[in-house]
UniProtKB/TrEMBL annotation:
The active site is at residue 266. Residues 186-210 are annotated as: Disordered. This is L-lactate dehydrogenase (cytochrome). FMN binds at residues 87-89, 116, 139, 168, 240, 264, 323-324. Signal peptide: none annotated.
Length: 381
């Protein structure tokens, strides 16, 4: 089906949950398992969503909210919404439109798209149809043979659409997830990284566009890896997978070369019972709030509603990432499905801002949320 034929069906979907349910019906078992998977007993994945439900909103009244502007900036670049698509491997498993399809949908909202190191399409192809001013990041998994990564960086450095390098740090060794038989075989053959390459059942033509030869490196360090990266790119660096305030504080010492951090537990896919991004954000506020001034702090993990987006922004996040919802969008309706997912989230975000009495993203603040339940969970032992 072309994107235009899919549009009316997509319009009938009212929530990210409905998109996921449709995608679940339509996707192959293998593609579904790859998207759905989480580590261990899915405790982090579940808690990522629950934590947003425990935060209450504090709406203000008698405010003219006829106009509401959701635009903001990320690293100084204008974006239309404070929502971005987090890097995800192998989007073509969900739909042939793949990562280029995600970009096409992001272009409509001027939303940032972070391209995965393990994308199924070449980065050049993903940015090919970019809208004017559309913002991209490139996520890097540093390889054992650093020259492999240096060649990738040299390539990325020539692409003006890519505005930052997002270095993922939360998976120095593979986490354990039980994905179902078909996929397990891939994961084993690929060192369990998010890069299934061949299937005996379906989608045999799907593979990572930048194959890993020497394997992802487990020996990255603050002292060695950041100077090495700085030698090979002048693009701003964002560290993804920060899960404690201590590491956020260390990251801030590397500013201005490090410009931002993404608080993330990788969608609960790596270390089960690792904390939701919101816990880390609250801890940063309590123990080292200056980090929020020094670095742009972003979050991701099981965002389901515009109210979730707004709550994270109120707590100081610059923008909020979605992972699986983009893939479910692809699975439900290709580009039109991703567009629908972003539309639902953007509409819900705007409505929530208006109902809080807020007209601009920058005006969202601590006064609009009550986080006591979550803080009790974190601090009261
Ligand atoms: C299928 C899938 C593949 C992923 N691949 C990558 C990847 O290649 N690099 C990376 O840094 N994170 C990867 N992630 C993690 C996402 O960037 C993001 O942190 C996570 O999906 C956010 O949680 P959510 O899916 O609940 O929104 C992947 C996540 C999923 C679901």
């Amino acid at each position: 089906m072309s994107s235009n034929e899919e549009r009316p069906v997509m319009e009938s979907l009212k929530s990210l949950d409905e998109i996921e349910r449709l995608a679940t019906k339509q996707l192959s078992k293998r593609a579904w398992s790859f998207n759905y998977a989480a580590a261990g007993d899915h405790i982090s994945k579940t808690l990522d969503a629950e934590v947003y439900r425990s935060i209450l909103l504090r709406p203000r009244v008698f405010v003219d909210v006829k106009q509401c502007d959701m635009s903001t900036t990320i690293l100084g670049h204008e974006v239309g919404v404070p929502i971005f698509v987090s890097p995800m491997a192998m989007a073509s498993l969900a739909h042939p439109a793949g990562e280029a399809g995600i970009s096409a949908a992001c272009g409509i909202f001027n939303a940032m798209h972070i391209i995965s190191n393990n994308a199924s399409m070449a980065p050049e192809k993903i940015v090919e149809g970019a809208a004017p001013g559309q913002v991209f990041g490139f996520q890097l998994y540093v390889q054992n043979d650093r020259r492999e990564s240096e060649i990738v960086l040299a390539r990325i450095n020539t692409m003006p659409e890519i505005k930052c390098i997002v270095l993922t740090l939360d998976e120095p060794v593979p986490g354990k997830h039980e994905l179902g038989m078909g996929l397990q075989k891939y994961e084993e053959s690929q060192g369990n990284r998010e890069q299934p390459r061949q299937s005996s059942t379906a989608n045999t033509d799907v593979s990572v566009a930048i194959p890993s030869v020497s394997g992802p490196a487990p020996d990255l360090t603050w002292e060695e890896t950041l100077p090495w990266l700085t030698q090979h790119t002048t693009l701003p660096i964002i560290l993804k997978g920060i899960q404690t305030y201590e590491d956020a504080q260390i990251a801030s010492k590397y500013a201005p070369r490090v410009r931002g951090i993404i608080l993330s537990n990788h969608g609960g896919r790596v270390l089960d019972t690792s904390p939701p991004a919101i816990h880390t954000l609250l801890e940063i506020r309590k123990y080292c709030a200056d980090v929020l001034e020094i670095l742009q702090v972003m979050v991701d993990g099981n965002i389901q509603r515009g109210t979730d987006v707004v709550k994270a922004l109120c707590l100081g996040a610059r923008a909020v990432g979605i992972g699986r919802p983009a893939l479910w969008g692809l699975g439900a309706g290709g580009v039109a499905g991703v567009e629908r997912a972003l539309q639902i989230l953007a509409d819900e975000t705007r409505t929530c801002m208006q109902l809080l009495g807020v007209r601009r993203v920058a005006d969202l603040g601590l006064q609009h949320v009550n986080t006591r339940i979550v803080e009790q969970q974190i601090y009261n032992r």
